[in-house]
Request: fold
Amino acid sequence: VPSERIFWVLWSVVTAWLFACALLVSGEYGDGYQTIANARYLFSDNPLYYVHRGPLAAAVLWPVEVLVDALDVDPFEVTPYHLYSAVLHSVYLLGCWWAIRRTGASAAARIIAFAAAITTVVFYCYAPYLSHDILPGLLFLLMIYVADRWLSAGTRTDALLLVVIGAAVVLIKQTYALFWVVIVAYGALALLFRWDDGRVDWRKFGALLGLAALSGAITWVGYAWFSAAQWPDVPWYFRPWELAVGVSETFSKDADSVFPAGLYLWNLHNFGVLAMLLVIPGAFIAIRGKDPRLRMIAVCWLMSAVVMQFVIFKEVRYLLFLAPLTAVLIAPAIEW
Reply:
């Protein structure tokens, strides 16, 4: 199939670029250095732990830490971490292609959607580094796929996957509690408007709330555990609250000047000009169409974009998690 060959050529070129960057880029962003410090706190002898960084982002660096310790790598050498990041982000590209193929769009539409929504300026700016914003987008899309399947079939395996993925993404970054919020909100809309022959009834919606609560409880315990050194005198069940208050008060006095309200709008082109032109028509087609999974993706994309606009902390990379959803939404729109 020509589209498959084109994809593999594109993937090979981008992957080669990622590994070249891993060898050439000698620095990190602040959150990257803090994640490395947290990994060394967990697996080495670093006494400092940045409690506001998600613990799972540091925990997944254990293979790098084993290698760094074994080879006695300089503490300021980031190449091993960038090589690991290159592997993860090349896998991310494969996952995005897998998702786009499931849309049923034509071969040309799939390739255009991938190039337009995934290989964007903002991806190239952050993919060479340790990132909390790229891979979680694919996990968000996977979470939606599993939720859609669970709403139709209701298997225990899918329920468990939802709980685990939902907890994992929040343990990477607290912002991703949004994923459960919008999925539950979709369930409420599906119940209200009787979408898809009423597959979401009160019983199913209640179960969805229960899964979200269980996932949230796991996350709460996780942050309580990893923040013990920061607040040893605070009861464990209050520590995540202390963390939330501390993070929310950061830049509280000058947030408008640090994070301007129009930041995302000014940078829409960095998320792909064609993708941004097509995503709203794609969402409209999905909501009006007959595919419940595409409708769910569209609703989650729209609600996530609106909520993120009202979150006080804004950086261009914070919307990178929407890229896989964007690609899946615009593929049918391109064909249409």
User: Anything to note?
Assistant: Residues 230 and 300 are 35 Å apart (CA to CA).
